[in-house]
UniProtKB/TrEMBL annotation:
Species this chain originates from: Plasticicumulans acidivorans
Coiled-coil ranges (or none): none
Family listed: Belongs to the disproportionating enzyme family.
GO biological process, one term: carbohydrate metabolic process
Enzyme class: transferase
InterPro entries hit by this protein: GH, Glyco_hydro_77
Catalysis: reaction(s): Transfers a segment of a (1->4)-alpha-D-glucan to a new position in an acceptor, which may be glucose or a (1->4)-alpha-D-glucan
UniProt superkingdom: Bacteria
UniProt KW Transmembrane helix keyword: no
Protein name: 4-alpha-glucanotransferase
MF terms (GO), sorted A to Z: 4-alpha-glucanotransferase activity
Amino acid sequence: MRPASETMDGPLDELAQRAGLSPRWTDYRGIARQVAPDVLRSALAALGFAADSPARVRESLAAVQAAAVGTLPALCVGRVGEALPLPPALGLRLAAGSVVRLHLEDGNPLDVRLIGDGRGRSALPALDVAPGYHMLEWGASTLPLALAPARCPAFAELSGQARGYGVAVQLYSLRGRHDAGIGDFSALAETAEVLGRHGAAALAISPVHALFSADVHHFSPYSPSNRLFLNVLHADAQAAGLGAEAAACGLDQPAAAGGELVDWPQVARQRQASLRRLWDYLSASLIAGIDPLGADFQRFVRAGGSALEHHVRFELLHGLQYGSDPARWDWRSWPAELQQPDGVQVQRLAAEHMHEIGFHRFVQWVAARGLAAAQAQASAAGMPIGLIADIAVGTSAGGSYAWSQPQDVLSGLSIGAPPDLLNRFGQKWGLSTYTPQALLRHGYAPFIDLVRAALRHAGGVRIDHVLGLRRLWVAPEGGTGADGVYLDYPLEDLLALLALEAHRHRALVVGEDLGTVPEGMRERLADAGVAGMSVLWFERDYGYFVDPSRWSEHALAMSSTHDLPTVAGWWRGRDLDWRQRVGHLQADSEEFAERAADRKALWGAFEYAGVARGAAPAVDQPAAVVDAALRFVAKAPAALALLPIEDVCGLEEQPNLPGTVDEHPNWRRRLPQPAPALLATPAVRARLDALQATRGSHK
């Protein structure tokens, strides 16, 4: 990384920009930086652009320039009611005044006269048609066309109420009557039912993406194998409507598990053993497909198509490879013939292990039925939104999605973050995702499929690191996070498609926009109907806590997140204690004294807002602080206030401590009781009543 005053190779610079890479960027101190040429070459190679010599750079640049003019996109994206310039390959060919036919998604044709765009190209005029996926036809040629509404649906539009509140939970943390050591979809349905009766409009959950069945130690919900499928450790027979079948095959209901932490390896072995026993019992009838359950299973498999088939093949192969040699955890270390999802050897192994292939289809079916039942329970309890799903920013580079789509993902690049005040070497998260080129090549199908998967059994979606719709920091493998570059994504097209899918699913869209945000990004998201996040700990102004009346009306109002301290934990300094314990903070750090001053500032803000009075509570008495904090957040102008269940219950420990792996029990903490008992305690009931009184209720 070099100061921006240094010069670069002109053609390499141009090729990088055409590939979506930013040769220059501004760091957290406001200093302009320039990406080193070798980093650009590595990133370009990972994106499919040869750049290892000046001649190869020129060849790649010529190919990119030719494609930009002469190739039609796989999908053209626009907005209802707005003129849409046609792509150069078409807009230069059809003159203004030409008539084309638009085949609407409902089957009706519409003849449209093209207009000029003022730059020598033709354009579709503003059209008053239903949002959807249509087809443009001229002569013998066609072009798929997506026309989206102006914005994602607003909370009021979806709920019929101006304001409401919701609760956020870590799914694994929930307890049920028979949870077997981990929160499952039955426990989720129970929680939704109780919160719905208390007037909650929404229940946000941690990611439920598919992990790695063969690796019981890989359990971070934000490092999945595949975001199109589900974490089967949350699947249970009762939630899927298979309780009678489970009993018939001798699966006893487990006693409710104790312990404060999820033992992921033990849970994984037990849950998978139970599901295998159920599959052995049901497999013949499900494969035959002659009864209602079998017919539903067969419909699920058909709907899953090649994506499901590739995922279950990966699960089989990962079990065989990693199970025999731990060094083969990553599919890129497998024999070449096993790196081809539809290759002869992979198909042969799948045929030889059909019962195992069937098992992995089965557990996805069980999980999907359970999640659908939880959303149905939320709706039945009166929640107008219900579940808010969470989409992780990427997938593991060694997972099933990357294996099944190697030509479409960031091969050799890791998503991360540039250097900042807390991490001068930057960050590499070991995550991959689809490339911008793959999105364009496939008509945005990877993005559309991802959003649809998240909304299939939910009334809303939270997009982790929503800035990734505009750009991602990517770093070549082998270096540090500092050796990275920003990769641009087609923000406007992605926002339009997000609005279209949210419109079709009648879903709320939330974007995690914390941290450093490019200028104008939050305003653009707000215009597009994507709600941001206003978090108590970050709503500061010169050290003072900002009164909630000044918080953004375009963002969810929140007391904390899974990566930040709970209110009770912050007041007691549990986050500081943990950071000192893991070596991130010295015992004589000024932060301990600063926390004492911050406590006074927070209580003063509470008093000013009218949610607290009298002297501030002692450090070891946080209950009144929690009460005041929830009332404080509830006063914000946001349409939806979303409170972590840890704060609703006054708990002190946070789910995740960033910057740690095993030093802190990340993604393992469990709630002390099942939701019906936990939410019925006097203190918690009083907080829920206060939220209803301040925010309103769907009842």
